[in-house]
Each structure stands twice: as C-alpha cells, then as structure tokens.
User: Fold these one by one.
Assistant:
Number 1:
Amino acid sequence: MKHKIIVTGGLGFIGSHVVVELQNEGFEVIIIDDLSNSSVAVLNGITAITGKKPVFEKLDLRDKPSVIDFFKRHHDIIGVIHFAASKAVGESVNLPLLYYENNLNSLIYILQELYKKDTANFIFSSSCTVYGQADTLPITESESIKNAESPYGNTKQIGEEIIRDTCKVSENLKAIALRYFNPIGAHESAKIGELPIGTPQNLVPFITQTGIGLREQLSVFGDDYPTEDGTCIRDYIHVVDLAKAHVAALKRLIDNKNAENYEVFNIGTGKGSSVLDVIKSFESVANKKLNYKIVDRRQGDVIAAYADTHKANTVLGWKAQLNLEDALASAWKWEQKIRNT
Ligand code: WQD
C-alpha cells in the first residue's frame, strides 16, 4: 500500500523538487498550494519528470474551516511536509502581520489536525536564518538561536517552538525541522526550477537573469566584510540534494527511528562560498563574463553561514552529492529554458 503524504506549497521552488523525489520513492503525493507565489503549470513539469500527476488542491491554509474539511477528506495520510509560507525577508519587515498570520496560523491549523490522528509525521521547512550570525562556524544544530533579524526569520523560530511544544505533549505526532542553508539550482531536466516573481531578492536567480540579459547588472552587496575576498559567505546547496534530505527525514519518521518526537537538522553542503566565488563559478559554467558592480552592504546580511552537516550525514544517512558548479549549471540551463534561448 502506498504511503500518502501531503505537501503544502508543493508547487513552489523547493516543494516541487521534493514532490518529484517523493514520487520517485513511491510515495503518493497530495499537493496543497494557494498559488500566491507559484503556478499550476508546475504540475505539468512534475508530471513530465515522474510520469505521475500528483493530486492538487488549491487551498488557503489561513482558512481554518477549509483546513479541517481538507483533513476530513484526506484522513488516510501518513503526514505533512510543510513548505507553504511567505518567505521574502525584506517584505516581511514591511508587512509583519501578513507574515505572522500566514506563516503561523497555517502551521497551527495543520498541527491541530495532525494532533487528532492516531499517528502523524510532520516535516517543517525551517532556515539557517534562525542562527543569525553564528558564534561558531561551521554551524551545528546546537548553535544558539539569535533574535531574528526579520519577521520572516521570526516566524521560522516561533514555528519551531510551536512544533516542539506540541510534540512534547503528543504521543502520536513526530516531527523533524530541516534548517536549509541556501537552496539554488533546478532539476536536471529543466522542467521545474525557481520562478521568482518580480525582481529576484536572492543571489543566484539575479545572476542567471543578468547572464541572460534580463537584468542589466548584478549589484554585489558589499566587499568590505571580514572574509578572504570581502564578500559574504554562504552554503549554497543544490535544491535536488535538499529535496532528497526531505525523503530521508520522512523515512526516519515512518521507520519510527526517531530518538525524540522532535528533531532538528542542518541541511547544507558544509562548504562556504563567497559572492565572488559564485560569480566566478557562474562565469565558468556559462562561459561568459557577468556584469556586476560592488555597492553598499545590504541591511541584515550575516557575514558567513555554512553548515556542519555531521548530524544529517550520520542520523539521516543523507549527504549532499552535488557541488556549486553542478547547481549553477542547472540554474543556468533552467534560466535559458524559461527564456526559450
Ligand atoms: C546571498 C548573498 C547577499 C542578492 C535568504 C534568506 C534565507 C533563505 C535564503 C528563505 C548575500 C548577496 C544577494 C544580490 C548580492 N530564504 N547578494 N546581490 O540572504 O543568505 O538568505 O535567502 O528561506 O532565509 O535570508 O540569500 O541569495 O539573498 O544572498 O550581493 O542581488 O548574496 O548580500 O551575501 P541569504 P541571498
């Protein structure tokens, strides 16, 4: 009998790649998405890759009666992988109540439904942003949680606490939070990938859009940081490797090997790359010079963040297989595909 799993935000960048890997592993997937930051066309991309069309329901998870009705209709699920959330750091500073309502109410309503079930597994999309500027690098899961720099980051911190406290008093709900570092790239088929709406806030989509001529020039936010080349360092992980970490986490929950009811894992490559490293690597894979200039620092940026992946490697049995060049080559292939060049 196939395990049936709900993926909220399953038409988004990371969610769609996780749906593909779940289907590849034989799971039956039901996608919930409100289409506020995704397109129903992504379903075709997923189906073209796996040959299996996931069930899709458009649903606003802030609508509690609809959530209750949905879970009544899908009572035979083994759990939820929860991506659905607003995720633009800058926007969250200007629209805090939108972020707290969307990101926290939807989480609470889902957990209330899972709490009623005899057994339930829950995987939460968290972020290394909860660490702020870590005191120690590489960053382990025991690194202290800093005061969030943005309402977005705060919703991830509060979200983890809500899950932790719920699992503490529930016999049958088990959860894993995955703290992503910097997801980049696209599926090798170029049938799914990142679809930023408007001007990309993140580095790699801005680079590929500059490379394809959609953007005039990349602005590098500061080269006066205390790093080797003065630019910030991040742990850029291929989105397919990140997707496979979700399957590993789900299998751990299903196999009931969970030591505690709530566990946290850092999901990165363990390697730090500077902004200039990424630019140089892109120029190499795309075989073209990138037009960029150095500008002032961006408020809220941490100097460096890259993962200690020992816990995920040993406990989840998961390790990133792809490197920065693989990820940038896939991002570039995807950019060219969606611009039909
Ligand atoms: C990476 C580096 C920028 C754009 C954010 C969120 C995090 C997660 C991933 C959701 C930084 C520099 C960027 C540009 C640049 N999002 N940069 N010019 O800020 O590490 O993480 O996205 O979960 O929660 O905080 O990623 O790609 O925005 O920036 O110089 O046009 O690239 O200064 O050093 P970030 P990013």
Number 2:
Amino acid sequence: RAKHDGKGIFKVYSPEMGNKMRRYHYLLEELRLAVARKDFYLNFQPIVHVEDCMIDYFEALTRWNHSIEGMISPVEFIPIAEESNLILELGDWIMLEACRQMAAWHNAGLRKVRISVNVSGVQLKHRSIYDWVMATLTKTGLSPNSLMLEVTESTLIKADSLIIKELEKLRKEGITIAIDDFGTGFSSLSTLADLPIDVIKIDRSFITQANKSKKYLDILKTICELGQKLGLKIVAEGVEEPAQFELVKRIGVSSVQGYLVSRPESSVNVGNKLLNKNVSNMSGSGTSAWEI
Ligand code: C2E
Ligand code: MG
Ligand code: MG
Ligand code: MG
C-alpha cells in the first residue's frame, strides 16, 4: 500500500478512509466464505458465583482464525456480519454449537453449569427468536434452564413490543435473559423494571473505573441496589484485579466474569480441566484458577 515517492520518503497513497473501506469489503467477502465453510470456533469464559467461585455459566465467545490475517476480533467482524445479515447464518451456527457443546458436557457428567450465548439485534428482528431457540434446544437436547441469552442494552432499548413478547415467552420456558454491556446504552434506570430480563451484566468500563472514581462507584452501587430490588441477578464483566473482585462482592454483585478468574478458553481446555476433575469450582486467581 505504500509507495516510494522518489525523495526517500514513503507515502501512503490511499487516504485512511480508503484503507478502512478496503478492509471492510475485504473482510466482508472473507466472512461470506468463512460463514459458508463454518470456519469459526467458540471459546468459553466462566461466570462464577461471587461467594464460592463456583461456575454458574460459560459465555460462548466466537473466534475467527483467518488463514492470512490470523485472529480477527469479534469486535471487528460481528458488526460486519450484522450489517450484511451474515449474522443470521453465523448466529444459527453459534447457537447450535454452543448448545450442542453444553449438552455434550452435561452428558459427560458436568451437571450444573449453564451456557450463555450472545444474540444480536439483527437476529431478533428477522424472525421469531422463540421458534429458533426452542428448535435449537430440541435439536441438541439441552434443557431451557441451561441456557442464557445475552442481548445488549442498546439492542433492548430499541426492541419493539413484538420482540419483547418473544423474549417473555422464552423466559416462561425457563430460559434466562441477560442485558449485556449494561451502562453503555444510555437507558434510564427506570426502564430496567419493564424489560424482560433476569440478569444485568454490568459493562467492564464501570468495573475498571469504580476503584478510581467515586462517581463510577456511586453509579455501580445504584445499579446494584436497584437490580436487587427488582429481583435481578447482577454480573460484573471484566474483573481483572483482586481489588475489583472485593469491591463488587461488597456492593452486592452476584457473579463475576473476567481475566482474574479465567480468560476465554477453547472447548478442549475447558472439557479437559472440568471433566477430568469433575468439578465446577474456579476459585483462585489468574491462570491458576483451574487448579483447585
Ligand atoms: P461481550 O459479550 O461483552 O463479551 C465479553 C468480552 O469481554 C469478550 O471479548 C471477553 O473476552 C472480554 N473479557 C472478558 N473478561 C475480560 C477482562 O477481564 N478484561 C478484558 N479486557 N476483557 C475481558 P471478545 O470475545 O473479544 O468479544 C467481544 C464482543 O464481541 C462481545 O462482548 C460481544 O459483543 C461480541 N461477540 C463475541 N462473540 C459473539 C457471538 O457469538 N455473537 C454475537 N452476537 N456477538 C459476539
Ligand atoms: Mg456477552
Ligand atoms: Mg458484555
Ligand atoms: Mg462488554
């Protein structure tokens, strides 16, 4: 992309915007091929109870290892998949694979652990999420009680009454609904009472700031108080340090997720570590979290 200008200086002859557009269209075409080939895999990150560090859920996080580019972050490819509707086909694979994997772990003897799957707003708009999720559960044999769906705050506040009804129907079946990245979508706290949710996942930015800023700490405390009053469970995302763990525990968060407990890991690693020991406790910190 760089061209020698003859004066010993390299000049990028396409403006930055052009490069961004080129990468976007390149990734879009690559994504199309990857979706057709199901060229993805899932990593799993534990969400643990704050009191005893027992695993409650694994969040399924999608990974794309591109043959030339290497790992491409979901932060980059999920929005492209959404804008192109490729997320519909990719999302089918993600839900099926996540439920299939958890059902397999259950069948191998891991009982109480549940799976949490991110669902995009595009998937909610294009068809009945109720029919789709229930069909996937039937296909994989996973029980509704073992599934949580994560929908971001910004998606939920835009959701129309039809989508809200679909989510309510799923809750009646025993499926858990979480509001993801809470605190970034600018909903008012009062809307929490009306949303069809069971769990609040507080965005990592609040956890990062709470130890440094009184303002963030106060917001965090308010969210926890209100959540508790509404009977919601609260998960703190992105807990990296023991001090953050202690803080969220003190103010009433029910569960934590973050590098302190474990990074997202491959299904093989999770399977080996959990099934060999036949445990679901991840107490401890950092990478030693598995050694109990
Ligand atoms: P998310 O759903 O909020 O997922 C949590 C993200 O935070 C994950 O990033 C996870 O690896 C990261 N994380 C967890 N603990 C820590 C920590 O202690 N410190 C830091 N710095 N990060 C932590 P990841 O896997 O890169 O995914 C990013 C986002 O991409 C997700 O945010 C989600 O919005 C989206 N995404 C990933 N997989 C899927 C998927 O299967 N479907 C959809 N619709 N979106 C997905
Ligand atoms: Mg999530
Ligand atoms: Mg999140
Ligand atoms: Mg997040």
